[in-house]
């Protein structure tokens, strides 16, 4: 028996183990004190079980990929779960054969080579099962090969591009199981220790059978394994062990906090480059194919991220929805933006403390909304109807809310604006702050510390008015398609209040791409690089989709969405506030302001 | 009567009498082209979708640069078309032009069909819908009106009041609304609105000498004969003030006056101004029916959506479909005098075409 | 002493024959739309920062074109990145990116010029 065949495998495995230990220790040590504490505290049975369950479902079964794309899911599952079962079962088999719980670590891997013919308890069943799972893994490998060459079969638009480290790992991975099949087949032919699969393969290659070919095949198999283990840390397959760590760290409640730390690395290394985020990204339609999350993660890892990529993203969050690993692509990207602009945050020392007006409610329209006066006018009407004592905080002068700066990564600068605005809001003694722009809403909710001041999005405020019957919109048969603004929907998880408001005024048509899967209008402030022509492509795509449902009006709840869609000129766009006001007017049989002026202007048109 | 004409010409004239030309659009371009052709002995049908001919001029109060009456222009053109024997069909909007066996078949939404040997498209222009510039508040703030509204109000009431019924003390005239603006998809200049603005500014000053009038412009494009002298007059006699800066947005104050934001670019400082009335100089866009008129033939739009000429210098009236010609603002923005000249040249192109048309003889 | 030589505007006249166009070329490389500005002032009129302080984003563009980097580097600090300017620009210039590029480049040039 030539024991040397285990050497490539063993060397590879030892190298891999050392690298993993080194990296994991480095990553965990690199976490902040608080995060480390969190991690330690998370070592409780219940939490551990939860994490293990997640590892099982996502790391082995790949449930999320399954849901999204069953073929792709099967491929991942057969490889990961199949291999996992081979390892576990292999160990049990060896234990049964040796009647001992302590077995050499390499033996299960090369069992058919070393154990030539002994029969032991249930050996037939074992070899059958081992063959069966080998078959499953092989089917996964076959699919993986197919996917590389014919990605369309998987319903995928794209696969990721490879680099050398990946190529090496990929080749060895592809080789491992076919070689194992051949080696086991050969042994089965020689010693009769196979089952249905390996024996039949053995018959087919029977004419070459000899001890020396057998040795060569097993050595090749060992080399493939060793090679794969050695290549793994520098390839994307590093995601397999890292994802396990990620799950534990994430379940301990650790999050990215606007600066890079080793949690960034853990996430970066967890990306399997499955490419699901590519499929969700609208930017490809406009020919932007270098800035999607998977590339950003890859470039962070390789230390060659450029501003042109980093800032060319709508931050729409669509990629995050389907990432099977649960990587926070948006936080991660914003963090990189923060890091890359650290050198030039502004101080805004020109900001003055302008006096606050005493009021019970504040309305903050936001910069964008000043370019959509229709929304402001409607809000004013609603406040008037509600008899509210409202201070329109940024009617004349107020700094921006700070969110656009944050999207651009200038976090320190944003905090200057936040401090200034906070002082005014608190100074007014208001109980409620109403905003009508999702971009502002997000920052007021997440980054301002406003004590007891309740921050309401106008949809919530209006639906409250409707429920309390302070305003009475008239329900019509108007067909409304509602566009979920990114910052509001995926960004803040607010899907229902705007729909509730709209349902009180007309017929809300459900559409396929809504809520979590809603389009971005293309106007996003998150993208600093995209050209207006490219934005137009995204906008047109979204409008075309909505037009299929023959809406009378496209409703949205974001001034920027409204402005973006209005440029299309082929569809009527209104903010929910405008729709409500016009429906109240209609039901009260008062001619809406908009219509009355138009009539005046066009009445004399020759018919 | 043909004693002095050579035989060939007699023959041609006889032949031309059997030719039928359809003119789409009864604005001044269509009227002029139709009457010129009819006077040459051709059978001409002029189709207009409105109840009467005259096009936009029916709405205008006074014409730049001489403050003459658009009504008189239309009246004269009407007389000419009637005298020349043009068959005028109103209330008919042509939506399709199809070529069959060398002839053209024009149809509308109902079942009106007109057959012709050649077609002139004189469908004119569409006034930019100012509600698309939401930040200017048209349709939302009652004291924001367009230059078209101004003409109509002047024509109807002969005076200019705010919606509250008071005389405005300060008026702002905003140039380039819907023109030269990538945001609305029109990157071209509408050519006549600068001078329209100056004309309207002078009219306001004549009516309300106490009223201050400001023109907010990006560039003053006063290309025509006598346009610059009107500009000079506006400055000298009428104290019109010109501010180089584009309006970014307007907001309504509680008293219904408007706060404007612009930059005085020559000063290099942002400018805030309260005015009682805003007039938006709306631009000219391709007529709404253009795309359906292009659908069943080889006619093509140019980069701005107007009808494409085969050659913008030598054959401006000749469309990309043989046998279809264009006249007036269907080609690009132009003033009344240019429109009329352009229409006459279209008529000439049609005659040349019919005379040399191989399918129907001639030479 | 820090050497900010690239910031020196030189004489009071615009010297077209030799001005420092590094910044301009950099911006044009990454944001070619900047070249189409017609100085209409729409951006300055709407600007959120300009509403609070003396700040003129149109002039930022002009200074960039003329190589007046010193003024530029002080003034550009004031922008709040709100993006309103980009929404009104009749030439569809991606002004927000122009500002990002200028800030980035100035901070890079500052570090490069620092004697080690
Ligand atoms: C605000 C404003 C003020 C102006 N003031 C002046 C001025 O003072 N002086 C001056 O010289 N110029 C002025 N102009 C320019 C002037 O209005 C145009 O030069 C002139 O109207 C062009 O005439 P037209 O026949 O080409 O087009 P139009 O006047 O638009 O006429 C086109 C006609 O075609 C009809 N039509 C369109 N499609 C169809 C169809 N499919 N089937 C049937 N009919 C159809 C329309 O109903 C219309 O009657 C002004 C323009 C504007 C916008
Ligand atoms: S980020 Fe997520 S979805 Fe995208 S490639 Fe990586 S693992 Fe897949
Ligand atoms: S956030 Fe949106 S635009 Fe950015 S990469 Fe993800 S899907 Fe694409
Ligand atoms: S503009 Fe609207 S849809 Fe687009 S990114 Fe912003 S919130 Fe989302
Ligand atoms: S004519 Fe004057 S107002 Fe009209 S688009 Fe041209 S520049 Fe603007
Ligand atoms: S709005 Fe655009 S074109 Fe006008 S000055 Fe600003 S950048 Fe230039
Ligand atoms: S992005 Fe900067 S320059 Fe543009 S409007 Fe906002 S503050 Fe002004």
TrEMBL record, chain A:
<feature type="domain" description="4Fe-4S ferredoxin-type">
    <location>
        <begin position="302"/>
        <end position="333"/>
    </location>
</feature>
<keyword id="KW-0411">Iron-sulfur</keyword>
<dbReference type="InterPro" id="IPR051460">
    <property type="entry name" value="HdrC_iron-sulfur_subunit"/>
</dbReference>
<dbReference type="GO" id="GO:0051539">
    <property type="term" value="F:4 iron, 4 sulfur cluster binding"/>
</dbReference>
<protein>
    <submittedName>
        <fullName>(Fe-S)-binding protein</fullName>
    </submittedName>
</protein>
<dbReference type="InterPro" id="IPR017896">
    <property type="entry name" value="4Fe4S_Fe-S-bd"/>
</dbReference>
<dbReference type="GO" id="GO:0016491">
    <property type="term" value="F:oxidoreductase activity"/>
</dbReference>
<keyword id="KW-0472">Membrane</keyword>
<dbReference type="GO" id="GO:0046872">
    <property type="term" value="F:metal ion binding"/>
</dbReference>
<keyword id="KW-0479">Metal-binding</keyword>
<keyword id="KW-0004">4Fe-4S</keyword>
<keyword id="KW-0812">Transmembrane</keyword>
<feature type="transmembrane region" description="Helical">
    <location>
        <begin position="120"/>
        <end position="146"/>
    </location>
</feature>
<feature type="transmembrane region" description="Helical">
    <location>
        <begin position="215"/>
        <end position="232"/>
    </location>
</feature>
<feature type="transmembrane region" description="Helical">
    <location>
        <begin position="6"/>
        <end position="25"/>
    </location>
</feature>
Automatic annotation (TrEMBL), chain B:
<dbReference type="InterPro" id="IPR023753">
    <property type="entry name" value="FAD/NAD-binding_dom"/>
</dbReference>
<feature type="domain" description="FAD/NAD(P)-binding">
    <location>
        <begin position="20"/>
        <end position="337"/>
    </location>
</feature>
<dbReference type="GO" id="GO:0016491">
    <property type="term" value="F:oxidoreductase activity"/>
</dbReference>
<dbReference type="InterPro" id="IPR036188">
    <property type="entry name" value="FAD/NAD-bd_sf"/>
</dbReference>
<keyword id="KW-0560">Oxidoreductase</keyword>
<protein>
    <submittedName>
        <fullName>CoB--CoM heterodisulfide reductase iron-sulfur subunit A family protein</fullName>
    </submittedName>
</protein>
<dbReference type="InterPro" id="IPR051691">
    <property type="entry name" value="Metab_Enz_Cyan_OpOx_G3PDH"/>
</dbReference>
<dbReference type="Pfam" id="PF07992">
    <property type="entry name" value="Pyr_redox_2"/>
</dbReference>
UniProtKB/TrEMBL annotation, chain C:
<feature type="domain" description="4Fe-4S ferredoxin-type">
    <location>
        <begin position="26"/>
        <end position="58"/>
    </location>
</feature>
<keyword id="KW-0408">Iron</keyword>
<protein>
    <submittedName>
        <fullName>4Fe-4S dicluster domain-containing protein</fullName>
    </submittedName>
</protein>
<keyword id="KW-0411">Iron-sulfur</keyword>
<dbReference type="InterPro" id="IPR009051">
    <property type="entry name" value="Helical_ferredxn"/>
</dbReference>
<dbReference type="InterPro" id="IPR017900">
    <property type="entry name" value="4Fe4S_Fe_S_CS"/>
</dbReference>
<keyword id="KW-0479">Metal-binding</keyword>
<dbReference type="GO" id="GO:0046872">
    <property type="term" value="F:metal ion binding"/>
</dbReference>
<dbReference type="InterPro" id="IPR051460">
    <property type="entry name" value="HdrC_iron-sulfur_subunit"/>
</dbReference>
<dbReference type="Pfam" id="PF13187">
    <property type="entry name" value="Fer4_9"/>
</dbReference>
<dbReference type="GO" id="GO:0005886">
    <property type="term" value="C:plasma membrane"/>
</dbReference>
<dbReference type="InterPro" id="IPR017896">
    <property type="entry name" value="4Fe4S_Fe-S-bd"/>
</dbReference>
<feature type="domain" description="4Fe-4S ferredoxin-type">
    <location>
        <begin position="70"/>
        <end position="98"/>
    </location>
</feature>
<dbReference type="GO" id="GO:0051536">
    <property type="term" value="F:iron-sulfur cluster binding"/>
</dbReference>
């Amino acid at each position: 028996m030539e024991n040397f065949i285990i050497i490539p495998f063993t060397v590879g495995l030892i190298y891999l183990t050392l690298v993993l230990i080194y990296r994991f220790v480095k990553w965990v040590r690199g976490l902040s004190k608080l995060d480390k504490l969190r991690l330690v505290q998370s070592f409780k049975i219940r939490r551990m079980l939860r994490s293990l369950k997640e590892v099982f479902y996502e790391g082995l079964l790949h449930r999320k990929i399954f849901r999204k794309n069953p073929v792709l899911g099967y491929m991942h599952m057969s490889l990961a779960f199949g291999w996992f079962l081979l390892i576990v079962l292999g160990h049990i088999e060896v234990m049964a054969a040796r009647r001992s719980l302590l077995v050499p670590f390499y033996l299960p891997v090369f069992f058919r080579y070393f154990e030539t013919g002994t029969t032991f308890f249930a050996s037939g069943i074992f070899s059958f099962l081992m063959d069966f799972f080998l078959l499953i893994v092989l089917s996964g490998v076959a699919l993986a090969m197919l996917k590389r060459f014919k990605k369309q079969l998987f319903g995928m638009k794209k696969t990721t591009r490879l680099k050398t480290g990946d190529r090496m790992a990929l080749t060895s991975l592809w080789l491992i199981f076919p070689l194992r099949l051949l080696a086991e087949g050969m042994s089965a032919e020689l010693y009769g220790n196979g089952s249905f699969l390996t024996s039949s393969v053995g018959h087919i290659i029977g004419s070459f059978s000899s001890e020396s070919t057998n040795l060569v095949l097993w050595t090749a198999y060992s080399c493939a394994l060793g090679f794969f283990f050695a290549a793994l840390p520098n390839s994307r397959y590093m995601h397999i062990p890292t994802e396990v760590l990620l799950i534990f760290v994430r379940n301990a409640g650790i999050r990215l906090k606007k600066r890079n730390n080793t949690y960034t690395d853990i996430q970066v290394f967890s990306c399997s480059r499955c490419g699901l985020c590519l499929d969700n990204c609208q930017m490809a339609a406009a020919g932007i194919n270098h800035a999607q999350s998977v590339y950003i993660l890859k470039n962070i890892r390789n230390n060659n991220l450029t501003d042109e990529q980093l800032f060319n993203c709508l931050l729409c969050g669509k990629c995050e929805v389907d990432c099977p690993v649960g990587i926070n692509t948006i936080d991660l990207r914003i963090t990189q933006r923060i890091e890359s602009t650290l050198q030039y945050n502004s101080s805004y020392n020109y900001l003055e403390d302008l006096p606050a007006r005493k009021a019970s409610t504040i309305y903050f329209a936001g910069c964008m909304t000043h370019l959509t006066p229709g929304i402001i006018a409607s809000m004013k009407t609603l406040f008037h109807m509600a008899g509210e004592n409202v201070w329109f905080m940024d009617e004349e002068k107020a700094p921006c809310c700070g969110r656009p700066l944050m999207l651009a990564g200038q976090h320190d600068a944003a905090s200057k604006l936040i401090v200034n605005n906070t002082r005014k809001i608190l100074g007014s003694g208001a109980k409620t702050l109403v905003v009508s722009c999702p971009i502002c809403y997000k920052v007021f909710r997440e980054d301002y510390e406003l004590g007891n001041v309740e921050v309401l999005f106008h949809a919530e405020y209006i639906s409250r008015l409707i429920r309390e019957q302070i305003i009475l919109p008239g329900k019509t048969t108007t067909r409304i398609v509602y566009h979920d603004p990114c910052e509001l929907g995926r960004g803040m998880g607010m899907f229902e209040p705007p729909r509730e408001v709209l349902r009180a005024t007309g017929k809300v048509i459900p559409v396929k791409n809504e809520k979590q899967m809603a389009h971005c209008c293309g106007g996003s402030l998150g993208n600093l690089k995209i050209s207006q022509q490219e934005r137009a492509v995204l906008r047109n795509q979204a409008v075309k989709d909505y037009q299929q449902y023959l809406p009378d009006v496209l409703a949205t709840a974001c001034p920027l969405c409204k402005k973006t869609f209005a440029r299309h000129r082929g569809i009527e766009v209104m903010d929910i506030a405008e729709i409500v006001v016009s429906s109240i007017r209609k039901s009260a049989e008062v001619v809406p302001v908009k219509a009355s002026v138009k009539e005046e202007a066009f009445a004399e048109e020759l018919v | 009567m043909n004693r002095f004409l050579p035989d060939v010409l007699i023959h041609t004239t006889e032949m031309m009498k059997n030719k039928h030309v359809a003119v789409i659009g009864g604005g001044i371009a269509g009227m002029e082209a139709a009457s010129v052709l009819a006077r040459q002995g051709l059978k001409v049908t002029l189709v207009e979708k409105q109840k009467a001919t005259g096009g936009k001029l029916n709405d205008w109060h006074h014409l730049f640069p001489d403050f003459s009456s658009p009504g008189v222009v239309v009246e004269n053109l009407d007389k000419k078309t009637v005298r020349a024997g043009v068959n005028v069909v109103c209330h008919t909007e042509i939506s399709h032009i199809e070529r069959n066996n060398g002839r053209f078949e024009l149809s509308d939404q109902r079942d009106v069909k007109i057959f012709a040997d050649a077609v002139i498209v004189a469908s004119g222009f569409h006034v930019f819908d100012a509600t698309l510039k939401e930040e200017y508040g048209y349709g939302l703030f009652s004291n924001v009106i367009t230059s078209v509204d101004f003409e109509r109000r002047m024509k109807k009431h002969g005076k200019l009041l705010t919606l509250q019924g008071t005389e405005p003390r300060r008026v702002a005239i905003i140039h380039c609304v819907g023109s030269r603006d990538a945001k609305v998809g029109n990157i071209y200049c509408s050519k006549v609105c600068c001078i329209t603005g100056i004309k309207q500014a002078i009219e306001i000053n004549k009516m309300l000498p106490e009223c201050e009038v400001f023109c907010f412009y990006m560039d003053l494009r006063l290309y025509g004969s006598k346009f610059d002298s009107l500009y000079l007059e506006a400055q000298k006699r009428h104290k019109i003030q010109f501010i180089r800066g584009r309006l970014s947005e307007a907001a309504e104050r509680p008293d219904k006056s408007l706060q404007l934001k612009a930059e005085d670019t020559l000063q290099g400082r942002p400018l805030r101004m309260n005015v009682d009335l805003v007039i938006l100089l709306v631009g000219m866009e391709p007529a709404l029916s253009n795309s359906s008129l292009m659908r069943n033939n080889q006619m093509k739009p140019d980069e701005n959506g107007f009808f494409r000429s085969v050659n913008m210098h030598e054959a401006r009236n000749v469309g990309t479909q043989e046998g279809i010609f264009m006249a007036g603002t269907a080609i690009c923005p132009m003033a009344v005098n240019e429109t009329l000249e352009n229409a006459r040249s279209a008529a000439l192109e049609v005659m040349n075409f019919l005379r040399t048309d191989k399918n129907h003889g001639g030479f | 002493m820090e050497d900010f030589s690239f910031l020196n505007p030189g004489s009071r006249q615009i010297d077209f024959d030799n001005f420092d166009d590094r910044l301009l070329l950099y911006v044009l490389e990454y944001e070619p739309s900047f070249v189409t500005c017609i100085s209409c002032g729409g951006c300055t009129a709407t600007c959120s920062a300009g509403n609070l302080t003396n700040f003129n984003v149109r002039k930022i563009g002009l200074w960039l074109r003329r190589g007046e980097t010193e003024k530029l580097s002080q003034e550009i600090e004031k922008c709040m990145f709100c993006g309103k300017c980009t929404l009104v620009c009749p030439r569809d210039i991606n002004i927000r990116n122009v500002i990002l590029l200028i800030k980035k480049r100035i901070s890079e040039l500052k570090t490069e010029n620092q004697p080690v």
